[in-house]
């Protein structure tokens, strides 16, 4: 049984259909990447998983239990197991780094302050941000903010980490510090589903790559296969363009 | 102008004026604090509440902001007793000012709700925070910081303009005491000059207090002047 099973989901923004029956599986400890052109619905897949965009058809299962996105209890259970990191970090601007990381564990999970803070410092250390624990987001670079956002998501102790184009808003120089943090998590066996345009990175960390276009899965395969010898014409065309040079 | 200033009359009764100023400060702080709570609930309902509740808040805001505070307080003091509800003059001023401030603060705080970054609210939502938790931990600190000047200005409006309405129904706040004392010995010019200066000092003290509170609680770097 896959850890996360996405079974033919549909979603729309207003009257615009953005997902037309997306299916793929993520096994425990696996890193799966969603790649494809802008507007293909990659980020929308992640948003539907955490209940930010409503699913209008199909279903999502975690460990064989299907999630009912109309039931707030079921959505809460899903958010309990999956945490998302956004492209624009979305840190709480009026809270220190430590405040950002400890807020949900303390207020949502009701855990003790000392215990949560100790764990938060460990997580900040993991992403190399422990020395900025008392800084505020507006005092940090984009790369630093994104690493804090990763620590904040990990503080929720998710089983599956969703990363939505976490390096797209960063200066080229800052990309690697964030990717290093993600590499470290992959090495530790964290189950991750990531949307990325960093093809070299995707190839390096993923066990499976799902290529999407216009709200459909065109092809899903291990990176070596999909990058070097894709079956579909559309994937060949896409990877031919993005990997050239 | 051949006027013979006699400020010693005022100094002799200065403690009475001070008592009035103290009451003014108390009325202002209470009405503003309670008004903020009403405003916060009102703004939250207008932003996230169901339609019927939103209409109720709209009616409250439209009704209060389009009628004079004096009429609202007169209504409480002179009209409510017709229905068997009798409050002291101080209670009427306090309740009237609070309801009045609540309506204006609903509008002021609503602007703060509108300017919260949607992305932060979404992040909070995916982290499992309930709507009240998101309001408490994301919206309120944001409001306190972003519309701090508007809030501080409104506090001064209540402190200076709001509370002095009390004098008209015999509440002995600063204006009331100045009227009381001047009617005894007709030293209007002296009493009102001193009372005016006391209002300036009062707002100065209040501004410093607000700036310190803002700095301490919300990292607001407010200038006092």
UniProtKB/TrEMBL annotation, chain A:
SUPFAM superfamilies: P-loop containing nucleoside triphosphate hydrolases (SSF52540)
Superkingdom of the source species: Bacteria
Sections of the chain in a coiled coil: none
Record-linked Gene3D superfamilies: P-loop containing nucleotide triphosphate hydrolases (3.40.50.300)
A UniProt-annotated Pfam family: ABC_tran
GO CC terms of this entry: plasma membrane
ABC transporter domain span: 4-239
Main location: membrane
InterPro entries for the chain: AAA+_ATPase, ABC_ATPase_HisP-typ, ABC_transporter-like_ATP-bd, ABC_transporter-like_CS, MetN_ABC_transporter-like, P-loop_NTPase
Subcellular location(s) per record: Cell membrane
GO MF annotation: an example: ATP hydrolysis activity
Topology within the bilayer: Peripheral membrane protein
Keywords: Amino-acid transport, ATP-binding, Cell membrane, Membrane, Nucleotide-binding, Transport
Protein family (similarity comment): Belongs to the ABC transporter superfamily.
Protein known as: Polar amino acid transport system ATP-binding protein
UniProtKB/TrEMBL annotation, chain B:
Chief place where the protein resides: membrane
Protein's UniProt keywords contain Zinc: no
Keywords: Amino-acid transport, Cell membrane, Membrane, Transmembrane, Transmembrane helix, Transport
GO cellular component, one term: ATP-binding cassette (ABC) transporter complex
InterPro entries linked: AA_ABC_transptr_permease_3TM (IPR010065), ArtM/GltK/GlnP/TcyL/YhdX-like (IPR043429), MetI-like (IPR000515), MetI-like_sf (IPR035906)
Gene Ontology MF terms: transmembrane transporter activity
TM region(s), chain numbering: 20-45, 57-80, 92-113, 151-171, 191-213
Domain ABC transmembrane type-1, chain residue ranges per copy: 21-210
Listed GO biological process terms: amino acid transport
Compartment list: Cell inner membrane; Cell membrane
Mode of membrane association: Multi-pass membrane protein
Family according to the record: Belongs to the binding-protein-dependent transport system permease family. HisMQ subfamily.
Protein name: Polar amino acid transport system permease protein
Organism: Pontivivens marinum
Taxonomic lineage: Bacteria, Pseudomonadati, Pseudomonadota, Alphaproteobacteria, Rhodobacterales
